[in-house]
Amino acid sequence: MHTGEMMENELDFSTIGVVSMGDMGHAVARTLREGGHRVLAALDGRSPRTCALAERADVENVGSLNVMVRQSDLILSILPPAAALTFARSVSVEMENLGSAPIFVDCNAVAPATVRDIAGTITRSGGSVIDGSLIGAPPGRRAPTRLYVSGPDADHLTSLARPDMDIRPLGTEIGTASGIKMFYAALTKGTMTLDTLVLLGAQQMGLSDPLIREFSESQPDALGRMQSSVPWLAADAERWVGEMEEIAKTFAGAGLTDQMHLGAADIFRLLAGSALAKETRETADRSRELNEAIAAFAASLSASSRGAAD
């Protein structure tokens, strides 16, 4: 059932398209399918890894975005933030061509201003938009994933709630749900980049060993956090560059400095250029020690410095 065919108190979301089938997307697709929904993926031209994750989620591959838009009641966009607006534009073209307008839920880590641009793109094509943001690990791991939603139709999404996915409405304003994701990730991923910056600085000055010893004595919780996250950041670093830039945009829009998270974007950019960035979450070496990762990141820093000098 598409926009405009609304039941008295709820919308029919029997068929849901999910783009894309990454770590988060395929897990969301899986839990929705287990909840009784028909879940679609558009896998034409997608990578073998994406197709394998879609197969793991046991979703229906309809091939093209055109077919997905035509058959879906609801589309969830779960993408790297830099791709969010481009994808929304592609969906809007399909909506105009088909005269079909599924509700579009932008679940990406983007600034409130960006999601309002996305909403404008979709509504001009006859669709309606729900602003969404996903916080926590993908469904099925640890605590339930939180999907915050806002916008005029946001309350209807509570029907998608699952034991491993909690739907949390935040009112009728587009941008509210994205805002909470921005401030949450400003702390979590921002802290990851600060940890990496501190460790890299100490490495460059030959102070790694005494600093780690000091952390072990006076900041054991901080050291534990570094050891549990920093060695594997490179696998996600490329897509997190855009997220940091969206966070910077959010703070600038609130009249605050954007410099902290533009710097965070620089750290993720550095990690994305390291040898460890070739890994995925599935292939990452989980035995890697913190000092090994920092040495690899420092090698990337040295290589980039040589390139700048040339």
Radius of gyration based on Cα positions = 21 Å
CATH topology group of the largest domain: Rossmann fold
**Most strands sheet:** 8 strands, mixed
Mean pLDDT metric: 93
Q: Could you name the ranges where pLDDT drops below 50 across 5 or more consecutive residues?
A: 1-8
Overall strand count? 8
Count structural domains: 2
- At the fourth level of CATH, the homologous superfamily of the largest domain is NAD(P)-binding Rossmann-like Domain
With helices defined by DSSP (H or I, 4 residues minimum), what is the helix count?
11
Name a few traits of the molecule.
single chain, 310 residues, alpha/beta, Rossmann fold, N-(1-d-carboxylethyl)-l-norvaline Dehydrogenase, domain 2, eight-stranded mixed beta sheet, 11 helices, globular, disordered N terminus
Account of the 3D structure:
- The chain is an alpha/beta fold.
- The protein folds into two domains: 15-174, Rossmann fold (3-Layer(aba) Sandwich), CATH 3.40.50.720; 180-309, Orthogonal Bundle (N-(1-d-carboxylethyl)-l-norvaline Dehydrogenase, domain 2), CATH 1.10.1040.
- 52% of the residues lie in helices and 12% in strands.
- Helix 1 (23-34) packs parallel to helix 2, helix 6 (176-204) packs across helix 10 and helix 6 (176-204) packs across helix 11 (290-309).
- The longest helix has 29 residues, at 176-204.
Summarize the topology.
Blueprint: E1 15-19, H1 23-34, E2 38-41, H2 48-57, E3 60-61, H3 65-71, E4 74-77, H4 84-98, E5 103-106, H5 112-123, E6 129-135, E7 145-150, E8 165-169, H6 176-204, H7 208-218, H8 220-229, H9 234-253, H10 259-272, H11 290-309
Parallel strand pairs: 1-2, 1-4, 2-3, 4-5, 5-6, 7-8
Antiparallel strand pairs: 6-7
Helix pairs in contact: 1-2, 3-4, 4-5, 6-9, 6-10, 6-11, 7-8, 9-10
